[in-house]
Amino acid sequence: xxxxRLALPLLAVMTAAGVLVASGCTATTDxxxxxxxxxxxxxxxxxxxxxxxxxxxxxxxSAALFARSPLVVLAPTDEAAAVAEAGERAAAWxxxxxxxxxxxxxxxxxxxxxxxxxxxxxxxxxxxxxxxTIGGAVAPEVDGVEVEPAEDVTExxxxxxxxxxxxxxxxxxxGEEGSAAAATARAARADVRAVPGGGTDLQSxxxxxxxxxxxxxxxxxxxxxxxxQADAAxxxxxxxxxxxxxxxxxxxxDDRRYVALYGAPEAPVLGVLGEQGPEAAAQRAAQLTAEYAxxxxxxxxxxxxxxxxxxxxxAGPDGDYSNELxxxxxxxxxxAAEAAGQYVVIDLQPGRTDFLTQAKRYEELLRRPGVGxxxxxxxxxxxxxxxxxxxxxxxxxxxxxxxxxxxxLVQQEALPQKMFVLHQFRSxxxxxxxxxxxxxxxxxxxxxxxxxxxxPDKQATWKALHxxxxxxxxxxxKNFYDEDEPMLSPEQTMADVAPVPDIVTYQ
Length: 507
Fold this sequence. Notes:
Helix content: 25-40%
Shape: elongated
Radius of gyration: 29 Å
Number of helices: 13
Largest sheet: 8 strands, parallel, barrel
CATH topology of the largest domain: TIM Barrel
Distance between the termini: 83 Å
Strand order of the largest sheet: 14-15-17-18-19-20-21-22
Number of strands: 22
């Protein structure tokens, strides 16, 4: 058989997940002069192996976990029994499993098809000297590489043992448990687990428990289903903290809705939250939420929306027509909510300053896992405006500046997803709402409809603001004790407001 050698750049076998060369480790036994396998940890903290074909995923996993292997096992992609046998042998021998795509055989012998180049490149990178084939697998011709059936490979021809990759957790998507790529990870002695729940949800309570309980420091996500995983590195790092939001998991609207008290500390005129102290407010939020439990089709979580910066009738010393409460004034309410298992949103009424400037004042609170942020454009004034004479508004660019900063904070601190609330009862309050960036998975964006008065008017506002809205948005409804005519009961709120709101707030 003629021999040929293809000189391919290593880049040809790397995946879009960015697998890079890392320092390897080799184990040998005393008196054993066989060439040893060298494993390595994936250089990236989180590596996604989501290539569209099983052949490519097998190569990518080999590249992530092995630096050198003089022997590999090769199976045909389309023969499930052969792949399973290859996995068993590879696990016993501690070497990678690679796959050969389908081949056509004619009078001139085996004909190479697309995929040979990547496979050949991986054989060369690994320094393979021997390919052990299973079933009908046909190895590409590479100079200096011997090919023989796996059953003919003697113990003396197998490489020495490799160090276990106990630092690496490999999570497999459905259908990947018996794949060649998963077998390669087992051969490297990585910790191979299926994603709990049979999907790719990394922020479910079960996945959080798994990741938090793991002693590994590297994670590989295996399966083409992970190709659409939004910011996998953040999802994994947040899950590894073990922190869960009220109601469980790390997504704000994971099959739940919220019932909130709104207001400012010690200011009853601004909302019902300020009618009592922190602990009593938490108890009141819990009692109100309990009224929704029998009529809601989802579990209901209590919440406090605390006004942190209050619109002012005069300019004040800083000229911004906004009174900024101190963190010390807000902290007792935040801590009372946390102790009661309730979510918190910090609300901004910025006057003539911008939302981002005010949001940064409360970064200390926003670093807490269960604290989100609300922007109230009604109180965002232009330089020549005054509260109660004009209704304010904000452009998408300013909203995006805040959401980008907040999402970056979530990433940097490995926090769960945060609620990001945009209050609106007129289209002019969010002047170009359709342009607002909703792409950051670290945030769950809510349009909170704050209309008050007669129910027909409120329903008309609710319907008007839904027009043209994307599915990415969540929705909030506000019940006013004094201003609504009449205020809806919990039963009416759940039955008469359509679509049913994700948040119901009381002011």
